[in-house]
Design brief:
The radius of gyration is 17 Å and the shape is globular. It has one domain: Aldolase class I (TIM Barrel), CATH 3.20.20.70. The chain has nine helices and seven strands; from the N terminus they run αβααβαβααβαβαβαβ. By secondary structure, the protein is an alpha/beta fold. A seven-stranded parallel sheet has the order 1-2-3-4-5-6-7. It binds flavin mononucleotide.
């Protein structure tokens, strides 16, 4: 979660039983960094670092987590108009996963063809293949489901064929505070990539429903903000 999930936050919540922690999202290149500045100007929380220090910053954050939780995988969620800065992040020592953000829906990010508008780019497959072929760590792609004009299953297959290790799906279903379990089931049945299911998990019952879809794992965002999960994820 941009502006929230730094090493200090993640070190506090990892003990609830998480085996992977995601830093970011971070903007990496001039267009995305400028977009972040505009987002901050209108009052939204963002991580905002100049291009010349962003890699060192992420490296430091990764190490602050690894010092306390050496067995937890650390991922960095990143945005960039081109693959190269993402490949550079993947070279950070101790970083386990670089996650390409095809999810953000802030207007300033959409205007430069990033975030969920990555799903509409003609070069999506080439972009992901470029990162996968040159990365020094595992590659995840985070998408939002049910984006207007986008066939989520088709996108899942493109991402699988491009060679990503994980497909992290915010299975948002417009109008309800629950995940689109039917869509996740369909994607799990029709692909072999490791799917991380996400959206609105705030109870053991919802984790059970999520796991029944066939996902490899699940992620939780808003429910951890309190730092006080009222259920035990060690059970799963
Ligand atoms: C304040 C806030 C900031 C977020 N920032 C990011 C981000 O930078 N990158 C990203 O992939 N998802 C981001 N998300 C989306 C969450 O990671 C997650 O996909 C979404 O909130 C649904 O999951 P949840 O119901 O468990 O919260 C953000 C969510 C919130 C509430």
């Amino acid at each position: 979660m941009a502006g929230i999930t730094d090493s200090e936050f993640l070190n506090k919540v990892i003990p609830f039983g998480f085996d992977t922690a995601t830093l970011g999202g971070y903007s990496l290149d001039t267009p995305t960094i400028n977009a972040s500045a505009k987002i901050i100007k209108r009052g939204r929380n963002e991580f905002h670092f100049p291009q010349n220090i962003i890699i060192d910053h992420i490296e430091n954050e990764v190490n602050l987590i690894k010092e306390q939780h050496p067995n937890v995988k650390v991922s960095a969620n990143v945005r960039s108009t081109t693959p190269q800065p993402i490949i550079e992040v993947s070279k950070i020592d101790n970083l386990d996963i670089v996650e390409i953000n095809c999810h953000c829906r802030q207007e300033e990010i959409l205007a430069i063809g990033c975030g969920q508008n990555m799903l509409k780019r003609d070069d999506l497959a080439d972009y992901i293949s470029d990162v996968v072929d040159n990365a020094s760590c595992e590659v995840s792609v985070k998408i939002r489901a049910n984006v207007d004009g986008v066939n989520t299953l088709k996108i899942a297959k493109i991402i699988e064929n491009a060679g990503a290790d994980y497909l992290h799906i915010d299975a948002m279903k417009p109008g309800v505070f629950d995940a689109d379990y039917e869509l996740l089931t369909e994607i799990c049945r029709n692909t072999n990539i490791k799917i991380i299911g996400n959206n609105s998990i705030d109870s053991e019952q919802k984790i059970e429903k999520m796991l029944k879809t066939g996902v490899f794992g699940f992620s939780i965002a808003r429910a951890v903000i309190s730092g006080n999960l009222n259920f035990n994820i060690f059970n799963f």
